[in-house]
Amino acid sequence: MSPARQSGLVARPPDFSAQEFRASLGMFATGVTIVTARTADGTLVGLTANSFNSVSLSPPLVLWSLAHRAGSMAAFRNGQHYAINVLAADQQALAERFAARDIDRWAGVAFSEGGNGAPLLQGAAAVFECFNRSQYTEGDHVIFVGEVERCAHRAEASPLLFHGGRFYTEHPL
Predict the structure, then answer these.
(1) Do the domain assignments include residue 5?
(2) Does pTM top 0.90 for this prediction?
(3) In this predicted model, what pLDDT tens digit does every residue of 51-74 receive, in sequence order?
(4) Cβ proximity of 118 and 124 under 8 Å
């Protein structure tokens, strides 16, 4: 707990709408990931997320977050391992597919099985195979911290980017 919270201080109520907050967050350009796992009964789970970030180099830690209401919450909360697949510029359709509801997200998707059993998506720019180290409930999301057991990348891959509610595949310097 922070020193401010320990002393009984609380944040002021927001002076903006949820829509304004979401739009403002959208101005931060991010990469796009698909977080994947295999449940104990063998079911494949995956979802598009742009809430990915590095935490530590030693030990190697990364984080991502998931809404409490997500249908895959139980699979990730209870699972021991997952993979974070950083998407390449040519994988926009895959990002949209894994963000959609009520479809078979895995139909026709090329992947291999990672060392921890999580699906690794073919063509990803980078892959992080993680041990489900810790989880923190904050607001309407759970923050997952993964300890990276294996990682790989394609140095020549261009990233898929997300900004202002849109995907971008070109990134002129």
Answers:
(1) no
(2) yes
(3) 999 999 999 999 999 999 999 999
(4) no
